[in-house]
Amino acid sequence: MLSNKIKKIIFLGALFLPFWASAQFLGSDSSLYVKIDPKFPKPNQEFSVSIESYVTDLNLAETSWFKNGTLVEKGFGLNSFTFKAGGLGSSVKINIQVKTSNKGTLTKIIEITPAEVDLFWEANSSVPPLYKGKALSSYQSDIKIIAVPNFIDSNGYFLNSKDLIYRWKKDMRAIGDSSGIGRNVLILKDNKIPSNQTISVEVETKDGKMLAGGNLNVVYSRPEIVFYEKNPLLGVVYEKALETPFILTEEEASIVAQPFFFSKDDIFNGNLVYKWLIDNKEIEEAQGDNIMTLRRPEKGSGSINLNLGITNFNRIMQFANNQLKINLGELKGSNLFNNI
């Protein structure tokens, strides 16, 4: 189950890192409207520019398209044209001149400067030591989102991320208290609403000449419990999770419950409550502990059902349950590694 979730997050990660480029209007004729598709071209990406007007018939007008001062196309009814953006930080200036029969010459100048911003996130949630996967975000867990912009000026120098303006939004609503100059880190705290969120950011230079942005979907997962065995010599064997049924071939075994995706702060502060049951009977002496030691009964045969519920009384939406069926197998002979 966990591995499938990790694969899903990695797959979505490619969608979380869009590139945007700035489109600056240097010359503006209010009667000529320009549309760029895509709105923010990536570096070296083709994009189309189309024009509209409500004061003249553009199909009867002669339109000239210039790129960096060079005429690239000219003709009547030529209301759109495709260009290619430059590399990162390289500007493309497009000049559009429309000769009309009733409004003279309409002009629009735009400048496309590709920039990019990558978004990275990490959840303040629990995973075991040396865990190779990502700590997923769960309801009410704190999440840190970091915007890493790549802005290059006309001299080829990267701009300092602390000198840029950041405007954060959550589900299209501005997060004013987290926006501003140099504020490239967003902390999402204690989300009580059980739904995913869309986080977006726009990054802009102080002079407004370069703009970039991106967005990501914050997907919340449910906390989980995974059981591991604690070996008296090797410690907790995190390399292999216990599967049901677990065959008990020793006189006793220590089962460790690892909470996944609970708040790390609450684990550290002792805010998790553990409720163990064996065959639906609560084990009072084990409450509050994430380790259960099982001892083989005198008549060592049959099976038992081990259940555990974990709740975080500081964050009521963080809870999980799991169970493990334990079959009493034939005792192994004593040796250095399994004799307790």
Shape: elongated
Q: Can you identify the CATH class of the largest domain?
A: Mainly Beta
The counted number of beta strands is 25
Low-confidence stretches: 1-20, 334-340
- What kind of sheet is the major sheet? 5 strands, antiparallel
Q: Mean pLDDT, as a whole number?
A: 86
Share in β-strands: over 45%
| Integer tally of domains | 3
Percent in helix: under 10%
Strand order of the largest sheet: 1-8-7-4-5
Q: Spell out the helices and strands N to C.
A: HEEEEEEEEEEEEEEEEEEEEHEEEEE
Signal peptide: 1-23
Keywords: Signal
Salient structural properties:
340 residues; mainly beta; Immunoglobulin-like; 2 helices; 25 strands; disordered N terminus
Describe what this molecule looks like in 3D.
- The chain folds into 3 domains: 2-18 and 116-218, Immunoglobulin-like (Sandwich); 21-114, Sandwich (Immunoglobulin-like), CATH 2.60.40; 224-328, Immunoglobulins (Immunoglobulin-like, Sandwich).
- The longest helix has 12 residues, at 2-13.
- A hairpin with an 8-residue loop joins strand 2 (33-37) and strand 3.
- It starts with a helix and ends in a 12-residue tail after the last strand.
- Mean pLDDT is 86; it is low at 1-20 and 334-340.
- It has helices spanning 2-13, 264-268; strands spanning 21-27, 33-37, 46-52, 62-67, 70-76, 80-84, 92-99, 105-114, 116-123, 143-150, 165-170, 173-174, 180-181, 185-188, 197-204, 211-218, 224-231, 235-236, 246-248, 252-260, 272-278, 281-282, 291-295, 303-312, 319-328.
- The protein is mainly β and 340 residues long.
- The strands form 6 sheets. Strands 1-8-7-4-5 form a 5-stranded antiparallel sheet, with no helix packed on it. Strands 11, 12, 13, 15 and 16 form a 5-stranded antiparallel sheet that branches.
